[in-house]
Write a structure and sequence with these properties.
globular; two-stranded antiparallel sheet; 8 helices; Rossmann fold; 2 domains; seven-stranded parallel sheet; alpha/beta; 16% strand
């Protein structure tokens, strides 16, 4: 690898699996030190132990401000600074017709997908503004670009992440901080597998189904999204802020009608587990 993040320190929420894990591995390979912030304690601890001294794990519920603040503080105490905040933790959340969506499922989804991004931005800014530099990246979705590609609450939150990205970029630019978002298309993870096949372990079948419907005829994997995050985290993106990079193999050229609106009401949470 080329050391594109040499000397940089990052926090990745949702870093123990899926896109987050792929990004942690990519950042480390490019020279960064990384705090893995995730609700999945056992999986996160195992990943940090595997990856070694340039990583730390901290159990983090992104709906709790104290948890998010602690993840940022760990980056500073363990590695001396914070250069990259990747607000990536997410769930699919509330699914089903709008008339049958329970309010508690709606609120839980908003707390993770939108409040969690707000808290990550807030506490990253707390450290980055005095430092005079930094890159804040948040995971939106193609459902944040086009309607009909995700559940209602997920779609609303992912649109909001793009709006918040633009708004915070306009504030923090004068402090040398860039704020951007990534909008992944269908990506082979446990959560996507749960949504597409009903089985969070069926990643091979999920990859086949994604490839079959993608304009490029291929499936996206966590490393594809990690590559976009790496670019936005690096100095190569020094002139980019307030933007959303769509990484979807052309999926948004086709529009879409979401399967989620016809599904039985429920909740799909971390690692694709259904409630």
């Amino acid at each position: 690898m080329s050391g594109r993040l040499e000397g940089k320190v990052a926090v990745v929420t949702g870093g123990a699996s899926g896109i987050g894990e792929g990004t942690v591995r990519r950042f480390l390979a490019e020279g960064a030190q990384v705090v893995i912030a995730d609700l999945q304690r056992e999986r996160g601890e195992q990943l940090a132990a595997e990856l070694g001294a340039s990583t730390r794990f901290i159990a983090t519920d992104v709906t709790r401000e104290d948890d998010v603040a602690a993840a940022v503080d760990l980056a500073v105490s363990a590695f001396g600074r914070l250069d990259v905040m990747f607000n990536n933790a997410g769930i699919i959340g509330a699914i089903g017709p709008i008339a049958a969506t329970p309010l508690d499922s709606w609120h839980r989804t908003v707390a993770i997908l939108l409040d969690g991004v707000f808290l990550g931005m807030k506490h990253a800014a707390r450290v980055m503004v005095p430092q005079g530099s930094g890159s804040i990246i948040s995971t939106s979705s193609i459902a944040g670009v086009i309607g009909g590609l995700g559940p209602h609450c997920y779609t609303a939150c992912k649109h909001a992440v793009i709006g918040l990205t633009k708004s915070v970029a306009s504030e923090l630019g004068s402090s040398g901080i860039r704020v951007n978002a990534i909008a992944p298309g269908n990506t082979v993870t446990a959560m996507t597998s749960s949504a597409i096949t009903g089985d969070h372990t069926a990643t091979e079948r999920t990859a086949q189904q994604i490839a079959a419907s993608n304009p490029l005829g291929i499936a996206g994997f966590p490393e594809d999204i990690a590559n976009a995050a790496l670019y936005l985290a690096s100095e190569e993106a020094r002139y980019i802020s307030g933007q959303t990079i769509v990484v979807d193999g052309g999926q948004t050229t086709n529009g879409g009608s979401s399967r989620f609106h016809q599904s039985k009401s429920g909740l799909i949470r971390e690692a694709g587990i259904r409630e």
